[in-house]
Amino acid sequence: MKTIMIHEMPDHAGETVRIGAWLANKRSSGKIAFLQLRDGSGFVQGVVVKEEVGEEIFAKAKSITQESSLYITAEVTVDERSSFGYELQVKEIELISEAVDYPITPKEHGTEFLMDHRHLWLRSRKQHAIMKIRDEVIRATYEFFHMNGFVKVDPPILTGSSPEGTSELFHTKYFDEDAYLSQSGQLYMEAAAMALGKVYSFGPTFRAEKSKTRRHLIEFWMIEPEMAFVEFEESLEIQEQYVAHIVQSVVQNCPLELERLGRDLSKLEKIQAPFPRISYDDAIKFLNDNGFDDITWGDDFGAPHETAIAESYDMPVFITHYPIGIKPFYMQSHPERDDVVLCADLIAPEGYGEIIGGSERVHDYELMKQRIQEHNLDEAAYEWYLDLSKYGAVPHSGFGLGLERTVAWISGTEHVRETIPFPRLLNRLYP
Ligand code: 4AD
Ligand code: MG
């Protein structure tokens, strides 16, 4: 007999199969027991009928404890009532390992308790659905960039430079030298773009930020494309196509997961390019006209500001052309204005905040040198980076999409801590 996975059941309707599974939950009466089984690939109900399996197997079914591991032999039948569409008519049960007093019971638990048991919490239906959506976003990311001629390049994690400013770096010793955990692979990706044209990276990045919000992780994963000969406007077009592609891939390939999370599909289905654009100037005006008198031109947006702007649209919205003073050193100046740069942040709908930061990059040697000095960066550490504007500099643009914030938005998960398997937060390094 074949051992199959739950997600393969549709191909085995009417057959008797064996699955390896854990017991997620159960309920039973004197004559029938319903086992909620999971095997990682999915969740399915196993029905145990006393009259059919006999006293001994029925008693075994009733005594299995939550999260015990089992081999189940059963017939696959169609079940129109469940959204999965199939169930198992159990014939035999083989206990592999009994779980005694599993800490996460079907009752409600507090967040801190669940976070302390993250290694077990991952087994729950909701967390399973979020991890599957995360995986689909990653799969669709690789698909999108390969379809569009990008090459995947992996920048280093131990670095000597700090693209996004020096205040949020994790410091470490690199033998006798000082090193930092990468806060962005961008500068290396710019070098890679000059070698390979259109490139993207996907890796962990680190911010020693003392932020404790629903949008901030200390360790998060970023997708960072960088494109030679691509100017500001064209970069925005690639960003909106990419984001629409990952959203529609999740809608297409994760219907059960979205349903399990109670996600409103109509909000996701309408996410199609192009996305609206609003300039920073107009965004400030909009905020001031709508009761926000705590922000003036030159200030950066806080979460409430971003949410207020996003609420005027049912699409992600680009806020473009920020003041030069609140953005990193590498952003290209506006051709007609010296107070703003050619950059855009993409703000997700429904209050999920900024999911992309991007810009055209400076490609003039003298200007780049001046910017590095103005930002008090250690010139020696940036010598290699300056070579990029010295030898065959070209217009180029790039951006970084934060995976966890994007997954939070698509899956409708309130806090980013549930969108990464083992979150690193201000006060959490365990488990
Ligand atoms: O806006 P950021 O800081 O941009 C960069 O790092 C650029 N160098 C990227 C580039 O152009 N190649 O970060 C980009 C995105 C943000 O929009 C956000 O989605 C995510 O990374 N992000 C975080 N996600 C979770 N926790 C944090 N602490 C984050 N900081 C940034
Ligand atoms: Mg940003």
Largest sheet: 8 strands, mixed
Q: Could you name the ranges where pLDDT drops below 50 across 5 or more consecutive residues?
A: none
The beta-strand count equals 16
- Principal-axis shape equals elongated
Instruction: Kindly provide the radius of gyration, computed on alpha-carbon positions and rounded to a whole number of angstroms.
Output: 26 Å
Tally of contiguous helical segments: 14
> What is the CATH topology descriptor of the largest domain?
BirA Bifunctional Protein, domain 2
Question: Any idea what the CATH architecture of the largest domain is?
Answer: 2-Layer Sandwich
Mean pLDDT value: 96
SSE blueprint and pairings:
Elements: E1 16-28, E2 32-38, E3 43-49, H1 50-53, H2 55-63, E4 69-78, E5 86-97, H3 111-116, H4 118-121, H5 125-147, E6 151-152, E7 158-159, E8 171-174, E9 177-181, H6 186-196, E10 198-206, E11 219-228, H7 232-253, H8 255-260, H9 265-269, E12 277-279, H10 280-289, H11 303-310, E13 317-320, E14 343-348, E15 353-360, H12 365-374, H13 383-390, E16 396-402, H14 403-411
Parallel strand pairs: 3-5, 6-10, 12-13
Antiparallel strand pairs: 1-2, 1-4, 2-3, 4-5, 7-9, 8-9, 10-11, 11-16, 13-14, 14-15, 15-16
